[in-house]
Amino acid sequence: FPVTIGVVVDENASSFVNILNIFPNPSSGVVNVQFQTEAMANITVEIISGEGKKLHEIYSGNHEGLQTYTWNSNLVDGVYYCRILLDKKTITKPFIVKQ
Predict the structure, then answer these.
(1) Predicted TM-score (pTM) above 0.90
(2) What pLDDT, on a 0 to 100 scale, did the predictor assign at position 16?
(3) Residue 87: pLDDT band by 50, 70, 90 thresholds?
(4) Residue 2 CA: distances (Å) to CA of 25, 28, 77, 79, 82
(5) Do 74 and 54 touch, CB atoms closer than 8 A?
(6) CB-based burial of residue 39 (10 Å sphere; 0-12 exposed, 13-18 middle, 19+ buried)?
(7) CA gap 18, 41 in Å, rounded
């Protein structure tokens, strides 16, 4: 099935965020979220379903520079989203789980 991969970025956040990578994609269990900011920020990293339901919070707290957050998922096959909340900005990126 065709899958469209993209990044939805708040215009104000685009200058603040350097890197947002999710790998491997597709994932068969372990999901790595690599995120970089230019300055110290308080962030929350969440996994949400295609319907927008919060499934898991991977990390919440201070973040600076380049960090990788690892999560062992138990999700069924499908398309999910990683949502990063920082200040008043939201960055969302899709990823695929295929066991």
Answers:
(1) no
(2) 52
(3) confident
(4) 14, 18, 15, 12, 20
(5) no
(6) exposed
(7) 13
